[in-house]
Design brief:
By secondary structure, the protein is α+β, with helices and mostly antiparallel strands. It has six helices and 14 strands.
Length: about 280
């Protein structure tokens, strides 16, 4: 009787376990966020662009901005997005930052930039790509440039991100305006990194390795300030574009090594050309 009850109990236990698993499968809210499929990049960017376009610009003339804040002596974190002030430059809405430049710094000096990924997943992230304008004391532009960003994956958050810089060489430079031009907002940054490594956890439906072009967006987190050694080292080691494809290791080694005559193990070294042998000792 006991054996019969045990045989009947096994199917019942299996059915109960399957019911529990089915319930867990249906309850999507129980799936940890890091195991959910990545969200669409375009959906996040479109929502951010729409919020930016609906914002009322405060400034459109370079003399209208407030330059009371001094450029930080080392890179400092700034978050640009809803709630930040908006400019209308060349017909394009953009969040912005405005600074006074240090007059005691020895020329030339570099302004450091780092942009952080905006999003949880690499495939669904974008970057705020800055443009910079240097102005003189009369608010006239001396230099206007879209900053190129280069990816560096370091051992800490300080050395991880998309890095760039701008060199100041003009002694007349007094002010700095940081924004994102239409070209920057529509551009991309090359990123040589695995999505699995970016999330720091196991992922589903994602490639484990590869290279990507991360799109730029209208908002995000940027670090701005005078260049320091940490940022300089990261920028010097950063990856700006895909490396060119070589001819292969074997071919490269063959081209680099000097030509050596082939040796036949059975006969020994190749005999010298009799036409080049000296008359001495040669019959």
């Amino acid at each position: 009787m006991f054996r019969r009850c045990a045989r009947l109990g096994a199917p019942a236990a299996l059915a109960a376990a399957l019911a529990v698993l089915a319930g867990c499968h249906a309850a999507k809210v129980l799936i940890p966020p890091n195991l959910r499929p990545a969200e669409s990049t375009e959906d996040a960017r479109k929502a951010a662009l729409q919020a930016l376009q609906q914002a009322t610009p405060c400034c459109s003339n370079l003399a209208d901005f407030s330059y009371r804040s001094m450029l930080p002596w080392q890179p400092k974190r700034f978050t640009l997005g809803p709630g930040s002030m908006v400019a209308n430059l060349d017909g394009t809405h953009s969040y912005f930052l405005a600074f006074r430049l240090p007059t005691a710094s020895k020329l030339p000096y570099r302004i450091a930039v780092k942009s952080e990924l905006n999003g949880r997943w690499l495939h669904s992230s974008y970057l705020f790509a800055p443009s910079m304008i240097l102005l003189d004391s009369g608010f006239q532009p001396l230099l206007k440039r879209d900053v190129q960003l280069c990816e560096h994956m370091g051992w800490s958050s300080d050395t991880t991100g998309a890095f760039g810089s701008l060199e100041v060489t003009q002694p007349q430079a007094r002010y700095l305006l940081v924004y994102s031009s239409a070209a920057q907002q529509a551009g991309k940054t090359y990123w040589e990194q695995s999505p699995a490594a970016f999330s720091n956890t196991a992922t589903l439906q994602m490639n484990s390795a590869g290279s990507f072009n991360v799109p730029h967006g209208p908002d995000g987190t940027v670090w701005i300030g005078l260049m320091d050694k940490t940022y300089a080292d990261a920028l010097d080691s950063a990856i700006c574009k895909k490396a060119t494809t070589g001819d292969g290791v074997i071919k490269t080694l063959r081209n680099a090594m000097p030509t050596v005559p082939w040796v036949n193990p059975a006969t020994g070294p190749a005999s010298p050309d009799p036409t080049h042998a000296s008359s001495a000792g040669v019959p």
